[in-house]
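Hi P.,

Sorry for the delay on this. The queue was packed all week, but I finally got your sequence through. Input first:
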Amino acid sequence: MNSKRFFILGLLIAALTALAACAGGGSSDLLKVTIKGEDIKYTPTTLKAKVGQPIELTLDNVGALEHSFFIDDFGVKLEAQAGKKSTTTFTPDKAGTFKFYCHVAGHTEAGMVGELTVEP
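Then the structure:
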């Protein structure tokens, strides 16, 4: 009877450990984000992610001009012609607040910028 209790207790501990590992590993869940590039702004202008969390980012250019999406700190460089989409995947490897911007001449200066906040 004791060995049966230890067996059941062992199974319970193993199951709880597996659940805790899954619950704590949220940073590895793929974050899918679509940023709309309009003339001359992004929607949304703020993004949040966690260190180590892969991000699939789509730039959906709904404007009449060419737009891009750059985050220098993570080597992200997307460009999309008017009416087109462009997608990339990257994984932030450090915490902080990072600027994203449109690299097309004059667009950053006109306010086509935003921020990605990466939490530990």
